[in-house]
Amino acid sequence: MQPSSNPQNDSSIPDDGIPEGHVAVGMIRVPWGIKGDVKVESLTDVPDRLSVGSVVFLNNTETRISAVHYAGGHLVLHFDAIPDRDIADAMRNVYLTVPEETVPIPSGDSYYHYQLVGLGVWTDTGEELGKVASILETGANDVLVVKTLENKEVLLPAIKDVVLNVDLEKGRITVRMLEYS
């Protein structure tokens, strides 16, 4: 069975292209050659996640990685479900996903980005600030991009002085707003 060429054609796939209960580990960018190979942007820190024999999902359909190589510094994969360039071309910007339960549990006070995006953000004084819309990777520390109730963006550094508590079960992050002079 071949995956749908457009994630929006499959009603079981949400608008972001990531099926419920799955985590994105890569994104197909462009076809590479004529045999169905695709250039992939890796979104995983797990070294063997995108290796030969690994199973991932394309448009909610399980497929196996049958070949891996690098060309021009880019990760190039071949999947059982993509036999030719036409299908590869239709897969542009489709996420490669895995079931969430296969993702290693982070240690200590670490969280995956997908766990934090969408959580409500409250100040330590009890004021609802908004929701985490995205996370910026700056090198020094990540930055939470919070969409406020007034539809503005607030940037909060993901450091212990600011992020006081993350409660995944309650879907809530408690933060301390820093005062600047």
What does this structure look like?
24% of the residues are buried. Helix content is 6%, strand content 42%. The N terminus is likely disordered. Strand 9 and strand 10 form a beta hairpin. By secondary structure, the chain is mainly β. It is elongated. Strands 1-2-5-4-3-6 form a six-stranded antiparallel barrel. Strands 10-9-8-7-12-11 form a six-stranded mixed beta sheet, with no helix packed on it. The protein has two domains: 96 residues, Elongation Factor Tu (Ef-tu), domain 3, CATH 2.40.30; 63 residues, SH3 type barrels.
Distance, first to last CA? 61 Å
Main sheet, how many strands, which sense, barrel?
6 strands, antiparallel, barrel
Report the CATH architecture of the largest domain.
Beta Barrel
Q: Strands across the major sheet, in which order?
A: 1-2-5-4-3-6
Task: Spell out the CATH superfamily of the largest domain.
Answer: RimM
CATH class of the largest domain: Mainly Beta
Helix count equals: 2
Mean pLDDT across every amino acid position: 86
The percent of residues in helical segments reads under 10%
The tally of strands reads 12
* Overall form: elongated
- What would you report as the Rg, rounded to the nearest angstrom? 19 Å
- Low-confidence stretches are 1-14
Number of domains: 2
Written as H for each helix and E for each strand, in order along the chain, the element string is EEEEEHEHEEEEEE
